[in-house]
């Protein structure tokens, strides 16, 4: 925990008026944004596939985008439509 706090406080004067913003920027720089983007893309792709299989393509995309893998469960719990809509051309 002290190591994380040291990274967050790197180059910050705690008494300065912009200390909060500087700490926030330091913390955001530690987040693995590229990995989060690719994982989210995979979640949406699987959600789209499940949604298409259940006849609810947009529902699958939206739920997966908002909730990730938990959205998959919601899509799977909805009743399946009689005939899946055709894929767009």
Task: Please give the structural blueprint.
Elements: H1 2-8, H2 19-29, H3 33-54, H4 57-67, H5 69-77
Give the C-alpha Rg: 21 Å
The total strand number stands at: 0
Shape: rod-shaped
Distance between the termini: 52 Å
Helix content: 55-70%
As residue ranges, the low-confidence spans are none
Tally of individual domains? 2
Mean of pLDDT = 89
List keywords for this structure.
89 residues, mainly alpha, 5 helices, 0% strand, rod-shaped, transmembrane helix, membrane
Would you kindly provide a brief summary of this structure?
The chain is mainly alpha-helical and 89 residues long. The chain has helices spanning 2-8, 19-29, 33-54, 57-67, 69-77.
Description:
The protein has 89 residues and is mainly α. It folds into two domains: 1-31, no CATH class; 32-89. The protein is 67% helix and 0% strand. The protein has five helices and no strands. It has helices spanning 2-8, 19-29, 33-54, 57-67, 69-77. α3 (33-54) runs antiparallel to α4, α3 packs parallel to α5 and α4 runs antiparallel to α5. The longest helix has 22 residues, at 33-54. The radius of gyration is 21 Å and the shape is rod-shaped.
